[in-house]
Amino acid sequence: MALPVRKFDAVIVGAGGAGMRASLQLAEAGLKVAVLSKVFPTRSHTVAAQGGIGASLGNMGEDSWLWHMYDTIKGSDYLGDQDAIEFMCRMAPQAVIELEHFGMPFDRNDDGTVYQRPFGGHSQNFGERPVQRSCCAADRTGHAMLHTLYQRNVRANTLFFVEWMALDIIRDPSGQVLGVTAMEMETGEIWIFHARATLFATGGAGRIFSASTNAFINTGDGLGMAARAGIPLEDMEFWQFHPTGVAGAGVLITEGVRGEGGYLLNKDGERFMERYAPTMKDLASRDVVSRAMATEIKEGRGAGKEADYILLKLDHLGLDVIEKRLPGIREIAKKFANVDPVKDPIPVVPTCHYQMGGIPTNYHGEVVVPAGGNPNSVVPGFYAAGECACASVHGANRLGTNSLTDLLVFGRASGDSVIRFLQENPGHKDLPKDAGDYSVQRVARLDGQTGGESVFEVGAEMRRTMQAHCGVFRFPDMLQSGVAKIKAVAERAKRTEIKDKSKTFNTARVEALELDNLIEVAVATLVSADARQESRGAHDRADFAKRDDVNWLKHTLWYREGSRLEYKPVNLKPLTAQTFEPKVRSY
Amino acid sequence: MKFRIYRYDPDKDAQPYMRDYDIALEPTDRMLLDALVRIKAEDDSLSLRRSCREGVCGSDAMNINGRNGLACITRLADLKEPVELRPLPGLPVIRDLIVDMSQFFKQYHSIKPYLRNDAAPPSPDKERLQSPAEREELDGLYECILCACCSTSCPSFWWNPDKFVGPAGLLAAYRFIADTRDQATSERLDDLEDPYRLFRCHSIMNCVDVCPKGLNPTRAIGKIKDLMVRRMT
Ligand SMILES: Cc1cc2nc3c(=O)[nH]c(=O)nc-3n(C[C@H](O)[C@H](O)[C@H](O)COP(=O)(O)OP(=O)(O)OC[C@H]3O[C@@H](n4cnc5c(N)ncnc54)[C@H](O)[C@@H]3O)c2cc1C
Ligand code: SF4
Ligand code: SF4
Ligand code: FES
User: Could you point out which of A78, A116, A166, A514 has its C-alpha 20 to 30 Å from the C-alpha of A426?
Assistant: First the structure.
């Protein structure tokens, strides 16, 4: 069946922070760009970011991009690529200032400069003491940033396709990417977006776990599409568990609470982080804090009837600070935890939050795969930025505030790369004859399925499996049985059935197609985690308790075909700075 | 728990109708959205928008027992049964609880919702300065999540959705007027100096009542009106 076609210079899938920073670059350059999003742009999950954007502005004390770079590399447990990290940390101040010029309502200091708060893992002078580096708008930084970027795109007349879901990547026989297929939700129609360059900014996939700080729409669509198109996924075993999700609800309580002076207590009222991280204490990096909390709970020092959560105390900050710097947190705590943090501590548990891995790219935002002996050979016409991409700046563990920085810096850089590519490659390449057939078949399979499985049930089974087999602590037997289990769930996902056959805004169909993507991510995660025989950053194995740089200082690449793994070296060579050699990590 | 939900699928329904549901909830189901997810697991044809499930994305605005609100932060315990759910009033229904928001966004776009300041910033690597007090002027304005609870409970917006900017758009207009970095105040006021765009607001305050973020569009509208009066004198 021939699908209708729309032609653009570039198509961007995703209108979160990364997608809209990139689209701005292209729209302001006068290119014909289409931005597709499953939701109205300001509903993208960047809107939920709370704590801030990391940049060494030095408004509140001495700071430098080199210190930021060191913190990021150390935070990554040395798995981050040092060229990309240097690039991000150097560009960060400019990216934040630019956002301010766009109208971002940052909090301010008395001298009129942007206010910055301390955040986990960010330090002065290579780990000596905490530094104030996180640029914020109260505890609504993501909201302020996403709206500002949307507003700037309105000014630039960016063309948005709102409530359009991209289904699959179109590649020609040479492997070049020529656009995507996408479904208009309102009508159920499928179109081909034929583009000279395609940029993915589809965000995270935190919904593979039951307890997650992520939105319903964070279903890893970009990763699923890439995997189905033969592109490997990098470092998928590394998932960040944020120390402070509201117990039972999953909703996030920003690390900014600890940045402003809050701290964690066990059931005995002990400030236990002093034992685990004497220097940085509650502001150690997230993997360290989450593990400490999980250990406290495991050893019976959790609070509550079931001794299954930790307490986050902030009442000592006082009503004024809470109202001024953390008003959204107070709202969330009241609504989702039934406590007013001005008086009582908030019950929290480590909760799945962020995917460090993703579609492999270099620091220009170009997607790279192993080919012809080069582990980082560029896929022509294909770009990725933001949480769906792996540059890799976050390595085995991301520092708080570094994702928003990543969106701004790599959103812009990938936009610039697209512009260069378009200049060098005029004209559209022809679409293959069967372009779009694959998507049409997938949707037809779903619509025609009888006697199949419920999307809700299969999804729940996937989330339970991930939660039980691939959490904060990982055990060899659980990983092994988890791999078998998740592959069985993946088989069931091939036979999902929906009762709703309507063409009009069929959200059951959308959820079924989302599950197709989630399941790819879930399999990639478990298979990659099972194979990595060491503990590094967020990947903590009971049977291999130590980091092993001799054998495992390398990136994982998972291919969907045969669920095969390959590895590629970590880039330890920065652009201009000296290499930060791996050393023991303590906070 | 009992629910009565507005259902309409143009593919098969000649008319909208109300459908009853009685579902067993789990102790972890705290908010209305949790219940809707549970209903959808049983009847996958129920259509609604949702994303963040924490009241920041603005997706799941609907009319809940006669009042506009966000399903994800509306506590089930506070709702009278059967809980009656309808799409936001005054906008065309696409399907079930999903409305066509084009008119709402068109009005938002009409106020030029972006910082206007043609002067080059003092330096490309320095922020424009703003005192904490100046920045505080934006509190209560910039937090809008564009959920449309307010505009779709405003009688003036129902009657003139094409001409009256509505509370959300006017709140946004004032957000830029109040920003010391924006230099287009007089153009913004000119644009609103119109019998419909601003002056259809009769201070009925429905908008303030329903805003799930506790914002006050009426006050912002009042401030715009004050500025207009002041610049005439
Ligand atoms: C609660 C919370 C708080 C956070 N706080 C911070 C913080 O303070 N600082 C920080 O640095 N990081 C923070 N993070 C992390 C950070 O917010 C995210 O990593 C980041 O916002 C992701 O941005 P993105 O642009 O990559 O994707 P998103 O903002 O998630 O956007 C994804 C976009 O892709 C679109 N999309 C997806 N699939 C498709 C498809 N198939 N077709 C069409 N469109 C599609 C979506 O509609 C959306 O527009 C936080 C995360 C969470 C969950
Ligand atoms: S105060 Fe004005 S904007 Fe608000 S509901 Fe009334 S008429 Fe509408
Ligand atoms: S002012 Fe309040 S009710 Fe109106 S759109 Fe904004 S957040 Fe929603
Ligand atoms: S789902 Fe985002 S506001 Fe309710």
Answer: A166
